[in-house]
């Protein structure tokens, strides 16, 4: 569905002026000592130089000099909110994760984001949107770090840095360039599904409140008896999914998504999402025509059921402290939720905590927004900005006063009988789901998709790259491919030639052409 912006969209939020407290405190330096002069530097006479002994000035400038930390390498532009998750179903048959006890409430922090564009970019630019949720459960933090779209461009973490390089600005001109990212995607046919969804109006949501969220990967759920079930998670917006047309998104005010969230939560219109789950057991995998751990695919025929709901009801008191320093990591899991063999998820398990130890620092997890509600007990110590307040003399293991690992929380075991190798997955089925998505669109949404896609693909100067891209869309759906071919001036003869080349290279794909 597409919508036009509400009349008050983009109006800058009124920030309430702070009421002066009864006794206005005096300024101090960081050491707590009162400041005598905060306007004028200390100089040697009217015409003389500024003195190094002006510790107030030196401290003020040096603190200012250190205000920035590196922005996130992706998902740099975002906004966060606090809320509550309430479990609404008993799923102890699937997982022993304590947060899913029906009726139980768990505090959450959510950060919404765009992906490729930098922290100071307009919020109307086409991009997938991040939807990351940190559940502060009584057994530690669980981070569900997802996107609004249900699938991803690639299926192996090995390709992530290359994909991001192609989408980020050129290292030569510092401008994003469709020639570069379509060069990458024309060599990555599995991206066809996500590209089709991204160039639909889902790529320009009308607000963060009106987006769904998707965990994208399969996760492994383990119940108290050790039984394994694989699951995908999805947030369904109770506000409905609403998107903008490219034209409206282009005209939208710079901060319209952030403003919308502050305005609506600020006036008590707390947005709500239902948490849905899909499940499969390994015996169901054999009948699939795709790999269940391939994140370029949805589990299209698997039903959803509701297991909880989340309401965002409070905006952070300070953007930097909470939103910018928030650190979501797929590796932050709790007993009962484990990683599946999804090759992207496996790479993500490493990458997030790694970047956060660089972006924020070794003690990132001790900051208020990241600190678990559950007590943290281990022998990790020191590092930049340690404020953990440890008073124990025993920082080693084993020891007489032992910090025990509890065997009951050991992870699930599984058998592996395989050859170690680095090779692609077998059931690639790169195009079928893109076709299903295309055919599910209304005539108007199809026309918008073609126009949006042609707007970027039409800028690609290489005939070969445009032809291969069109051949992928054609293999998803003939009508889709034929319309794109026309819109970006690729002769149909060239398209069918590229399809044959593809089918020769990947014979198992033949049956997917509709
Ligand atoms: C952020 C890496 C795939 C969703 C990030 C960050 C990195 C990263 C390094 C910045 C984290 C930070 O500075 O705090 C990767 C790698 C991937 C991958 C290596 C593939 C192997 C994905 C996928 C999704 C996703 C498949 C969606 C399911 C997000 C979100 C954020 C993020 C939502 C922003 C979290 C926040 O709001 O702070 N990613 N990513 N990423 N990624 Fe990924």
From TrEMBL:
Keywords per UniProt: Heme, Hydrogen peroxide, Iron, Metal-binding, Oxidoreductase, Peroxidase, Signal
Pfam families hit by this protein: Catalase, Catalase-rel
Keyword NAD among UniProt keywords: no
Listed GO CC annotations: cytoplasm
GO terms under biological process: hydrogen peroxide catabolic process; response to hydrogen peroxide
Top-rank taxon, per record: Bacteria
This enzyme's EC code(s): 1.11.1.6
Broadest EC class assigned to this enzyme: oxidoreductase
SMART domains: Catalase
Coiled coil: none
GO molecular function: catalase activity; heme binding; metal ion binding
Residues at the catalytic site: 75, 147
Reactions performed catalytically: 2 H2O2 = O2 + 2 H2O
Catalase core domain: residues covered: 28-405
InterPro entries linked to this entry: Catalase, Catalase_AS, Catalase_clade1/3, Catalase_core, Catalase_haem_BS, Catalase_immune_responsive, Catalase_sf
Binding-site list for heme: 352
Entry cofactors: heme
Function summary: Decomposes hydrogen peroxide into water and oxygen; serves to protect cells from the toxic effects of hydrogen peroxide.
Record-stated family: Belongs to the catalase family.
PANTHER family, A to Z: CATALASE, CATALASE-2
Name by which UniProt lists this protein: Catalase
């Amino acid at each position: 569905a597409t919508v036009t912006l509400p009349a008050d969209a983009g109006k800058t939020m009124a920030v309430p002026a702070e009421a002066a407290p009864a006794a206005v405190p005096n300024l101090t330096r960081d050491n707590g000592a009162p400041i005598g002069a905060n306007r004028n530097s200390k100089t040697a006479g009217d015409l003389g130089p500024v003195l190094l002994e002006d510790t107030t000035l030196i401290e003020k400038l040096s603190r200012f000099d250190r205000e920035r930390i590196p922005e996130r390498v992706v998902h740099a532009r975002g906004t966060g909110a606090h809320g509550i998750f309430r479990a609404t179903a008993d799923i102890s048959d699937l997982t022993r994760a304590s947060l899913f006890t029906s009726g139980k409430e768990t505090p959450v922090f959510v950060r919404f984001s765009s992906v490729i564009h930098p922290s100071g970019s307009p919020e109307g630019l086409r991009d997938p949107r991040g939807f990351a949720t940190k559940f502060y459960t009584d057994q530690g933090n669980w981070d569900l770090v997802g996107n609004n779209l249900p699938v991803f461009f690639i299926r192996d973490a090995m390709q992530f840095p290359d994909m991001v390089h192609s989408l980020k600005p050129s290292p030569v001109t510092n401008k994003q360039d469709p020639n570069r990212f379509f060069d990458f995607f024309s060599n990555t046919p599995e991206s066809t599904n996500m590209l089709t969804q991204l160039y639909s109006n889902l790529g320009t949501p009308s607000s963060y409140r009106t987006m769904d969220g998707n965990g994208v990967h399969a996760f492994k759920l383990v119940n108290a008896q050790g039984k394994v079930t694989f699951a995908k998670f999805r947030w369904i917006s109770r506000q409905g999914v609403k998107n903008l047309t490219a034209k409206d998104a282009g005209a939208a005010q710079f901060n319209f998504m952030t403003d919308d969230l502050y305005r609506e939560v600020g006036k008590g219109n707390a947005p709500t999402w239902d948490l849905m789950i899909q499940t499969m057991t390994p015996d169901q995998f054999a009948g699939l025509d795709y790999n269940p751990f391939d994140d370029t695919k949805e589990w299209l025929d698997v039903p959803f059921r509701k297991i909880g709901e989340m309401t965002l009801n409070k905006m952070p008191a300070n953007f930097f402290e909470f939103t910018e320093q928030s650190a979501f990591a797929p590796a932050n899991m709790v007993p009962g939720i484990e990683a599946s063999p999804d090759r992207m998820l496996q790479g993500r398990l490493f990458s997030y905590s790694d970047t956060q130890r660089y972006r924020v620092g070794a003690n990132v997890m001790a900051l208020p927004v990241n600190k678990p509600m559950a007590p943290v007990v281990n022998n990790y110590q020191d590092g930049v900005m340690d404020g953990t307040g440890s008073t124990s003399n025993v920082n080693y293991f084993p020891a007489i006063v032992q910090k025990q690992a509890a065997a009951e929380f050991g992870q699930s075991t599984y058998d592996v009988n395989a050859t170690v190798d680095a090779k692609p997955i077998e059931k690639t089925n790169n195009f079928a789901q893109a076709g299903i998505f295309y055919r599910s669109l209304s005539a108007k949404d199809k026309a918008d998709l073609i126009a949006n896609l042609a707007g970027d693909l039409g800028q690609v100067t290489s005939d070969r790259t445009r032809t291969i891209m069109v051949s992928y869309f054609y293999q998803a759906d003939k009508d889709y491919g034929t319309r794109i071919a026309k819109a970006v001036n690729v002769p149909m003869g060239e398209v069918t030639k590229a399809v044959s080349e593809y089918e020769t290279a990947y014979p198992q794909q033949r049956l997917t052409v509709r």
